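Can't paste images in this forum, so I'm doing it all in text. The chain is below; anyone willing to post the predicted C-alpha cells underneath?
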Amino acid sequence: MNKFSKWLICGAVATIAMPALATSGDANLKSDITRWFSSVLENNNVSRFSPDKKIKISDIAATDSLVWSAWVDANRKLDEEKLPSPRPIASGDSGEWKIPANLEADATMKYYWGSKGDMPAGGYPLFLYLHGSGAPDREWSNGLYFARTFADSPSVYFVPKIPRTGEWYRWWQKSKQYAWEKEHPHVPLHNTGMQLRERSGDDADTVRARPF
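Text version of the structure:
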C-alpha cells in the first residue's frame, strides 16, 4: 500500500470517528487533526488518530468537511514545492518537478496545469490526464489539446509528461506517483476526488496505475 493510500485510509477513519462542528471545542479539535496530518506528511513516527468520540449519521457531512479542511491546512503548512494557482488551461502554462533520485535517477517531470471555467463554490473537479506510449513530446502535446477541448468545464487539469523512455516509460511506477501525491492536495478547495483520463497504447500500464 502506498503512502498516499494510507493517508486516505487514515482520513476515512478520522471522518467516521470525529464529532461534527457543533461545539466551542471544534476549533481545538480541528487543530489537533491538522497537527496529526502534519506529522504524517512530515514522515514523523505517528500512531493512528483515535478519538474517543462518536458522531451521528446526520453529522457525517459536516465532520467530513472538518477533516478535509484540516488536511488542506496541513498541506498548505508543509514546507515543500507547491503548485501555483491554476491559470486557464488555454494559456498552456507548464511547470516541472524534480523526482527524488531514490525513486528515479535524473528525472524531472514536466506538467501542464490549468483550469476551465469559473471555480464552483465547492471547488474544481480534478482530472489527471495520462498520455499514451508514443513519442513523448507529441503525446504530451496531445494531452494538452484534449484537456483544452473536452466539454467538461468547470474543471482543472494536471497533464504530466513521463520524464524518461525505455524501462521508465510507465505510469504505474512510484516515481510518477510521487508527483501525483504532491499535486492532489493542492487543487483549490475541492474534495470531490481525482478522475483519471488516459490515452494509451499500453492499456495494461494505465490499468496498473488506476489502483493508486
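The helical segments are 3-17, 26-41, 60-77, 136-149, 174-183, 203-209. Strands lie at 87-88, 94-98, 108-116, 126-130, 155-160, 194-198.
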